[in-house]
Design a protein that fits this description.
The complex is a heterodimer of chains A (285) and B (157). Chain A has 285 residues and is α+β, with helices and mostly antiparallel strands. In chain A, 34% of the residues lie in helices and 26% in strands. In chain A, strand 2, helix 2 and strand 3 form a beta-alpha-beta unit. In chain B, helix 2 crosses helix 5. The longest helix of chain B has 18 residues. The chains are: A alpha+beta (285), B alpha+beta (157).
Chain lengths: 285, 157
């Protein structure tokens, strides 16, 4: 028998999760959790709905960046003009997940903690340098977005811990990001490959960059070699070629019904190049 | 059992539900609101589309327990008494339904669309409805009915 609780504070949520001897799930948008529940793939002993906790639906300006509450839906984030202006890549990545109906519920935090290798918003958060806040029995801590998933469906969160918000850092001037994914149709599918690039451009030259790939390894990858390939350049042909090669070299995919190892490896390079071009255009605009 | 107080189509409603029960199960099996259909149960088909605090969602991807204190909208609340909503009327005029299973979900979804975008392009309508599958594949007439309803609603506004 599953127990359902909807506490009104993160302290309350942590206490419930920490005290539960059996299995637990945190419910934000529920677009993955409810599917697992229905298919009898997984029924936790305790389900903790965090949507009654004050502040979880808020997007707040903080130190030039944006703090996105754990229950802010894709629809809500994409209705926020300032976050969209600062982090179009993160917003478009979240917006790609599922239908209008799924957008009414799906969250950045849920996408991160569900730990699917193909999660669309995760490479975008990693490229953006997003930092999440985690509440737990020992108080609050912070973690980089790339340090949450440890494998398909597995996270680094410890017993009693849950993510309370995602912080997108200050964009500053000359910034641009982009997320692209390959799917065999135009809507409503799971990424075969995803690529996110975020960069800062000064006087036409890239001064900082982060590149992340999705669906080509057990977790989304932060590809430092790919970023190094374009830093200092004006995204000329040579830099783009080096970027594509570094992205393909980092890809470590499996073959499945969505795509083969060879296809995914090639597409990882191509998408990284295209995402970099769009991020560059956004940065210099 | 969990005791839930909610508002459905403007009416105060209370029900008891099992913690695992979805909002779709509650609507259909406890409240006799069978307009929302179960097509897939995994959020892919949109046949169970409802609104929660005005936001379009799949009732199969929500627990009944989550409805406490929220405002739910279903296809049963679209008409005003015996008077059909413009969208419902246009679906009849354009024969925009065949077997009818997807129709309640598409009506709820397009009503939400037109409240947000009163003057949508055809492309916008098609993308908005990407999560509403019609097994009879009657999409074209659906799109025509929605575009026609949008036009009438703009002229009436």
């Amino acid at each position: 028998m599953m127990r359902f609780e909807a506490p009104d504070s993160f302290e309350g949520a942590v206490a419930l999760l920490a005290a539960e001897g059996g299995t637990t799930r945190v419910l934000a948008g529920g677009t993955d959790v409810l599917v697992q529940l229905r298919s009898d793939m997984f029924t936790p002993d305790l389900m903790v709905d965090i949507k009654r906790i004050p502040g979880v639906h808020d997007v707040t300006a903080e130190g030039g960046g944006w703090r996105v509450g754990a229950a802010v839906s894709g629809a809500e984030l994409n209705e926020h003009p300032e976050v969209k202006k600062d982090w179009p890549g993160v917003c478009e990545a979240l917006d790609l997940i599922g239908s209008t109906q799924v957008q009414g519920r799906a969250t950045l935090t849920g996408n991160l903690c569900n730990a699917s290798p193909a999660a669309d918003s995760v490479p975008a958060m990693i490229a953006a340098g997003a930092v999440v806040t985690i509440a737990g029995p020992d108080g609050e801590r912070e973690a980089k977005a790339e340090d949450i998933a440890t494998g398909p469906g597995k996270t680094s969160l410890k017993l009693g811990e849950l993510v309370t918000s995602v912080f997108l850092p200050a964009r500053g001037t000359g910034g641009g990001d982009c997320y692209l994914r390959f799917i065999p149709r135009t809507e409503m599918d799971i990424a075969v490959v995803g690529a996110a690039v975020s960069m800062t451009v000064e006087g036409g030259k890239i001064t900082a960059a982060r590149v992340s790939l999705g669906a080509v390894a057990p977790t989304a990858l932060l590809v430092e070699d790919a970023a190094t390939a374009i830093i200092g350049s004006s995204l000329d042909e040579a830099a783009l070629t080096a970027l594509g090669e570094a992205a393909s070299a980092a890809a470590n995919p499996i073959s499945d019904k969505r795509g083969t190892v060879a296809f995914r490896t090639k597409v990882a390079g191509v998408l990284a190049q295209r995402a970099a071009k769009t991020a560059y255009e956004r940065a210099i605009k | 059992m969990i005791h839930v107080n909610t508002k459905i189509n403007g009416d105060e409603t209370e029900f008891l539900c099992d913690p695992r029960e979805t909002m779709l199960d509650v609507l259909r099996d406890k409240l006799a609101l069978t307009g929302a259909k179960e097509g897939c149960g995994t959020g892919d088909c949109g046949a169970c589309s409802i609104t929660v605090d005005g936001r379009l969602v799949c009732a199969c991807l929500m627990l009944g327990a989550e409805a406490d204190g929220r405002e739910i909208g279903t296809v049963e609340g679209i008409a005003t008494g015996e008077k059909l909503h413009v969208l419902q009327q246009k679906f009849l005029e354009h024969a925009a339904l065949q077997c009818g299973i997807c129709t309640p979900g598409i009506l709820v979804a397009t009503k939400a669309l037109l409240e947000k975008h009163p003057d949508p392009t055809e492309t916008q309508v098609r993308y908005w409805l990407a999560g509403n599958l019609c097994r009879c594949t009657g999409y074209d007439k659906i799109i025509r009915a929605v575009m026609d309803a949008a036009k009438d609603m703009r002229e009436a506004a």
